[in-house]
């Protein structure tokens, strides 16, 4: 886990469109955008969002300081943990942000209320 510095999200895993047209164009042009990232430990980090071709499919990638997120949450983000990523927008300029929510504990598969 310490060697990974990104989180990959397949387009198949996304339930609804979340980027505005400008953000979509930026990522399609192979650029990254900085986003606020609320961690399970409630710390807020700044990470990058990108879009990569992985094999024959596209994925959104959260990278940058993602290894710091893993380190900050090493007591709660165990192998096989199930997480959800929630989008939020901060006014006044509708800045994009994500929150990483753990829903199933990794080691004992316990659902988190």
Automatic annotation (TrEMBL):
<dbReference type="InterPro" id="IPR005508">
    <property type="entry name" value="At2g31720-like"/>
</dbReference>
<protein>
    <recommendedName>
        <fullName>TF-B3 domain-containing protein</fullName>
    </recommendedName>
</protein>
<dbReference type="Pfam" id="PF03754">
    <property type="entry name" value="At2g31720-like"/>
</dbReference>
<dbReference type="GO" id="GO:0003677">
    <property type="term" value="F:DNA binding"/>
</dbReference>
């Amino acid at each position: 886990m310490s060697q990974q510095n990104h989180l990959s999200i397949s387009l198949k895993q996304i339930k609804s469109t979340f980027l505005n047209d400008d953000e979509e164009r930026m990522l399609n042009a192979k650029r990254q955008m900085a986003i606020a990232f609320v961690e399970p430990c409630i710390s807020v980090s700044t990470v990058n969002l990108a879009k990569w071709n992985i094999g024959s499919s596209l994925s959104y990638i959260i990278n940058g300081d993602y290894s710091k997120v893993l380190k900050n949450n090493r007591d709660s983000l165990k192998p096989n943990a199930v997480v959800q990523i929630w989008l939020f927008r901060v006014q006044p300029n509708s800045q994009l942000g994500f929150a990483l929510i753990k829903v199933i504990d990794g080691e004992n598969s316990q659902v988190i209320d």
